[in-house]
């Protein structure tokens, strides 16, 4: 177990300059699609939005799908509370993202890319569109048929879920679809679609430039490469940091905590709360290890010190979920409401402490029966907060 | 500007100009149902909000049901059926802001303006709404007036910010 943990290692790939994007694009699209896909697969890059699906495999399946029309979509609907990395990427290194989208289009046979930009990031739109027109001009020059549109989100957290995002792009309410079929077969407009997080696309640029080995050599087993972390909460240095995956939470807190860290929420509202006593045994990375706890994250790291009430934190998360549940499936719609009512009733003494166990059961049901990741992941923060800070929920 | 509101009956009267403008926007998007969200954005940016009468008009133009338009309008928090103030105040209630005291700020604004969330002051200057994480967690708590971002806001700052806008309004009385 010890070998898979390592100390906090800073890295600098994502925000390193992108001046050579034209060269990288020209060079990469001369390679065969199979060759590029193999390189991505061997880098073991996994989706950086939080779910961690192997990127190379996603591109491969979509490339193999038979359809005259395919799409590449960049998911920039960064809505997880405490995450602000995608905004930085799109404002500082947009060409990396566009290059990655064009290469993906070249591999899978898509001529159109769409960036689904979070409504709150409206201020980025203008400069992004300017960058895109310069990018498209270069594509034409090298005879690569690829165009990119920006679509503005309209303020709905659920649209970060890929199938809800497609619905929204098609002009509907952002209600998730049933899976399967997966987007690789039936995505936007029911056509095979690659949908990747902004950061994932930026990482593929690193791989095209330096090769898979360079990327693979960073991080630990099952969690290769680097990741951007959005650090906020009770920390003297909030901001965005690129770190190698696989560090222990203890090392993270030593670096970013304010000396009085009580708990860290890893992965935003849909993630897990880790109390101080578990910092040492918790690593940040994708699941897959046989021993130890490994937490995946879209990059949100919220630090709480001992002045924070965990009841208030949970109350805020549940209010968020109640508000953002799309209302389509009952477990999520009613579950979120009941959880919020429930913890308030326990706090006020109107319900016995044991009622919390009933609520925990409810989250298990939601995890099993909710239609999409939103309802399924309410259990993560609920259980990890209630189990570790039960007394704060009651008194 | 082109909508007359009958406050008593909650009805609005669309001027011919307004109707023409909505129709023009629908035409610009080729009456495509798939462009509904873009159309709504374009229309709202002209009128400031999307009253039922405008939704009916859009539905008619695109040949889709009013329920479909209403469903989309009410799903997304960016669309509003009530007019917003000249200075729309939004407070981030994301977790980072929340734990750093956003609720106190929200209450202070309510007290200062004497309105609740989702309401507009009678003089039409300010409206208040809460947002979910604007992605500026490093600056928590965050308050927005229009698109201007105020970071690390303290309860005591609220009065100052509001009075700045009130004063600005007084010096530019003609600026609509």
Automatic annotation (TrEMBL), chain A:
Keywords: 4Fe-4S, Iron, Iron-sulfur, Metal-binding. Signal peptide: none annotated. SMART domains: NADH_4Fe-4S. Coiled coil: none annotated. GO terms for molecular function: 4 iron, 4 sulfur cluster binding; FMN binding; metal ion binding; NADH dehydrogenase (ubiquinone) activity. It comes from the Bacteria. Residues 311-356 form the NADH-ubiquinone oxidoreductase 51kDa subunit iron-sulphur binding domain. The keyword Cell membrane does not apply. PROSITE patterns: COMPLEX1_51K_2 (PS00645). InterPro entries: NADH-UbQ_OxRdtase_51kDa_CS, Nuo51_FMN-bd, Nuo51_FMN-bd_sf, Nuop51_4Fe4S-bd, Nuop51_4Fe4S-bd_sf. It holds the Pfam family Complex1_51K. Belongs to the complex I 51 kDa subunit family. PANTHER family: NADH-QUINONE OXIDOREDUCTASE SUBUNIT F. This is [NiFe] hydrogenase diaphorase moiety large subunit. The lineage of its organism: Bacteria, Pseudomonadati, Bacteroidota, Bacteroidia, Marinilabiliales.
UniProtKB/TrEMBL annotation, chain B:
GO terms for molecular function: 2 iron, 2 sulfur cluster binding; metal ion binding; oxidoreductase activity. [2Fe-2S] cluster binds at residues 92, 97, 133, 137. Binds 1 [2Fe-2S] cluster. The keyword Kinase does not apply. Its cofactor is [2Fe-2S] cluster. Keywords: 2Fe-2S, Iron, Iron-sulfur, Metal-binding. InterPro entries: NADP_DH_HndA-like, NuoE-like, NuoE_dom, NuoE_N, Thioredoxin-like_sf. It comes from the Bacteria. Belongs to the complex I 24 kDa subunit family. PANTHER family: NADH-QUINONE OXIDOREDUCTASE, E SUBUNIT, POTENTIAL NAD-REDUCING HYDROGENASE SUBUNIT. This is NADH dehydrogenase. It comes from Prolixibacter denitrificans.
